[in-house]
Specification:
The protein has helices at 15-30, 41-46, 83-93, 104-117, 141-162, 177-186, 200-212, 250-262, 282-300, 320-324, 332-339, and strands at 2-7, 33-37, 49-52, 97-102, 121-125, 165-170, 190-192, 218-222, 235-239, 245-247, 266-270, 306-311, 314-319. The protein has 343 residues and is α/β, with parallel strands linked by helices. The protein has 2 domains: 2-127 and 280-324, Rossmann fold, CATH 3.40.50; 141-277, Phosphofructokinase domain (Rossmann fold, 3-Layer(aba) Sandwich). A 7-stranded mixed sheet has the order 3-2-1-4-5-12-13, sandwiched between helices. The longest helix is centred in the middle third of the chain and has 22 residues, at 141-162. One of its GO terms (biological process) is canonical glycolysis.
Length: 343
């Protein structure tokens, strides 16, 4: 058996741990041969491969990023794209199956390749946003929350020194899990998420309440948050390869609005890709390793078109269609819990 591995979409801590888990499981339990596609689906379309041996993954779990590289490439585009061309390439290279490690866009493309062309593919969910409904948690999320929480702790000291309002923007296109968890952990005075539009008047009310208690306000906002009069999330960076807006900048829009209405000097900080970088936490290393090992077992079970997932503390296999059919949004009850702490 020869398996091709790829990492596609936005990178995150834990990708290398998945690769290591898959290779060690395959080599030790099944004497599997592995190759990696460089730069995600681009490597599949352009036939850009590299061998991966047990030696290549030594000590890889603690390393951030991905040794294979990643990109936001659509496998249905380009001269080598589409199910027929991809299957021909796999046959010529002697590759029996693909393990695709990625988020919503990557997994949707994988499922479509299976549905339309019978490509033998298994998915591994990857998203720091934790927005895939079919898995309780995705690796990279815990690390992103830790990074955001540290940023909140650091912003608190400089905010207190100057009596400023700090607005911290974290990732979260459609869901606000990073903002919710880091905001609660760091003691934010307001948490703004895509699922819960809030008026600028309400935000300023929370900010002023904090000032009245002699504190420096700190607001955490997810990049996908919208004010009630906004028809879509703030974006000024164009579209990605899947024609989705590149988000970012909502904090830089909110800070001057808060300052104008409250008179409190306000500053915006956008974490951006800092949340994706660095070494993964212990939790993410373990979860990613378990998912990589389970993906290899799914290949040998011929569970094509499916992905491995975390349910409770167990690793299961579910349909990719189920995983990408709806979002894992923050429920009202969780936001109501956090809202008690606002202001």
């Amino acid at each position: 058996m020869k398996i091709g591995l790829l990492t596609s979409g936005g990178d995150c801590p834990g990708l290398n741990a998945v690769i290591r888990g898959a290779v060690l499981k395959g080599v030790i339990s099944h004497t599997t041969e592995f190759v990696g596609f460089r730069w995600g689906w681009r490597g599949v379309v352009e036939r850009d491969l590299m061998p991966i041996t047990r030696h290549d993954v030594r000590g890889l779990a603690r390393q951030g990023g991905t040794i294979l590289g990643s990109s936001r490439t659509n496998p249905f585009e380009g001269e080598g794209g589409g199910p027929e061309n991809i299957q021909r390439m796999l046959d010529e290279e002697g590759i029996d199956a693909i393990i695709a490690i990625g988020g919503e866009g990557t997994l949707t493309a994988a499922r479509r390749l299976y549905d339309e062309g019978g490509i033998k593919v298994i998915g591994v969910p990857k998203t720091i946003d934790n927005d895939l409904l079919a898995t309780d948690y995705s690796f990279g999320f815990d690390t992103a929350v830790e990074i955001a929480t540290e940023a909140i702790d650091r912003l608190r000291t400089t905010a207190d020194s100057h009596g400023r309002c700090m607005v911290l923007e974290v990732m979260g296109r459609h869901v606000g899990w990073i903002a919710l968890h880091s905001g609660m952990a760091g003691g934010a005075h307001a948490i703004l998420i895509p699922e819960q539009p809030q008026s600028i008047e309400q935000i300023c009310e929370w900010v002023e309440s904090v000032r009245e208690r002699g504190r420096a306000p700190l607001v955490v906002v997810a990049e996908g948050f919208t004010l009630p009069d906004m028809t879509e999330a703030h974006s000024h960076k164009g579209l990605d390869a899947f024609n989705r807006p590149r988000l970012g900048g909502i904090a830089e829009m909110l800070a001057p609005m808060i300052e104008e209405r409250t008179g409190i000097e306000s500053r915006a900080t956008v974490l951006g890709h800092i949340q994706r970088g660095g070494e993964p936490t212990a939790y993410d290393r373990v979860l990613a390793t378990r998912l990589g090992m389970a993906a290899v077992e799914a290949v040998y079970d011929e569970s094509w078109g499916n992905m491995v997932t975390l349910r409770g503390t167990e690793i299961k296999t579910v349909s990719i269609a189920e995983a990408t059919g709806s979002l894992n949004t923050v429920p009202q009850s969780r936001y109501d819990e956090a809202r008690i702490l606002f202001g």
